[in-house]
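Researcher: Next entry in the queue.
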Amino acid sequence: MRLRDLLSSDETQAPADLRPLRLLRLPGGERDLDRPVLGTVTIDLPDPGRFVSPGDLVLSGLAWHGLDVGTEQDPGAEQHPDADVGADADADAGRDAAADRSDAFVRVLVQAGAVALGAGEARLGHVPDDLVEACARHGLPLLAVGVEVPFTSVTEYVARGRTEERIGGLAALVDRHRRFSTQRRAGAGSGSEAVLELLLAELDLRAHILSPTGRQIAGAHPSLPEKTASALAGRFLAAERAGERAPHRTVARGTAFSLFPVRSGAGEGDSAPRAALTDWLIAVEADSADWNDERVDLLDQLARLVAVERGGRDTDRTMRRRAAERLLALVGSAAAREGGPSLFEEEEEAARLTAGAAGAAEAAGPEGRLCWQAVSARLETKGAHGLPGAASVRGLLEEVLLHPRCLGPEAGPRMAVTAAGDGDGAGAEAVAFVLVGEDARLTPDAVERVAGGSLPRGLRAGERLAFGVSDPVGGAAELRHALAQARNARQVAAPSQPVAASGPDALAAHVMALLPLIPAEVRREFSRRLLAPLTDYDRRYGSDLVPTLRSFLEHDGSWARCGEALHLHVNSLRYRISRIEALTGRNLSRLEDKMDFAAALQMG
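Model: Structure for this entry, 604 residues:
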């Protein structure tokens, strides 16, 4: 409701109980009539500041003013001849005091953010001139509330108008959402795009819907630069992980942004920070610190509409998820490993996925040959954060693969992702089967670049996200091999990085890369047995045999370079190496023993 809604030049249009409301002063001109009225407050205290909120229409009976009807002198009364001068002086003093009170009263209202003052005429029969002048001086619109108008009528009228506005706004949103859903079912465009068009048109804002990897789903044109989108997604994930209250405010490339979460619901059993790893966000190019609660609430409602539209997209993926689940079960079954009847089922299931993959022809390229790749993703956790949900890891893997850098545009129909279970209790795994062209394969570098841009900021201490990508294979019969290859590659993905991806090349790059494939308990026991004599000796005598061994191997057994690095004379270095050989029974001139020592140091 706006101030002009309380006034009308047409008596027939004005509310019957408010027709005696008159506009006395409009210091800002006609534009003051567009001031929004958010509520009313009735007060007659000289200092009303603590009771007034921004947007209030203040109603006052002027009891604070001090100029009382009874103070005016009866013209017919007999007066003392010397009383005129004293009476005039008292009247002037009273008028000055009243003017001061008016000025102070109006100044406090303006400071509190009042939209206007409604001055009641019931007490004095008019609105005092000093109050009119004070409102003009401080720029506060002034209404005269006639004797016939109870303040309660004004309050009720404003309350009714505000309620109707809220109901109308909600009805409009619901109607738009209904139309968006109808258009989406009819294939007439994207619901997300429609919601963003509403945002841009009605709020005069630029906004973008982003995935947690920074993929741009919908939004204003031109689109955000890729680095900016990734940085905004990272800021969103970090804020959610820290438990900050949305909207999250930030600055990117000199522009203020406010980030609103679009909840996915994918990890309903997870804590909020981990669930946020699969949430979308709306990045609005504005600073929400300047907004009122209603505008923030409207953006929250729009975010919920986008979440509903996203839920529709997820429903479209359900069939492919189920197909991937069946294919994973077939690939891992004992019959499939033996080449039995399930191999036929495996090929049949893969054929269904291929037939339903929109855009498969484009992916195949000019040769028309499609290949399969397997991807394994695992979210590992250490500490007291709780276990990640398999559904959350599935959602994460989907978001990574949907980024154009991984599989190009329209990747959704060419991928099937499923949760692979909660593993050994230290994390959860998801598996994807993707269709690619022979010359357009998915690479570990692309996966790591997409996942490593923003997702590390959403991980907590002790959490790590690892990906393994297989080589392309020609048919369903080779999917078992591709899945094993992806899982093995995932295990050797840079263990020191919070987000890392690896492919089969890493398995063949160096024999040491195979160590993570050995069970952890076996690795620890091997390292302990070989190095225990050296660590015990160092602890007992304060020597440095283990650091000396490490340096000797790092310098490829060069006595001169190792001695220089350790600041030791070559004779001293030779003595230490001889002690190492004597304590362990190994010979550091033999390649096999060198490799054993290197493996033990890496596994220790």
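Model: The longest strand covers residues 370-381.
Researcher: Noted, moving on.
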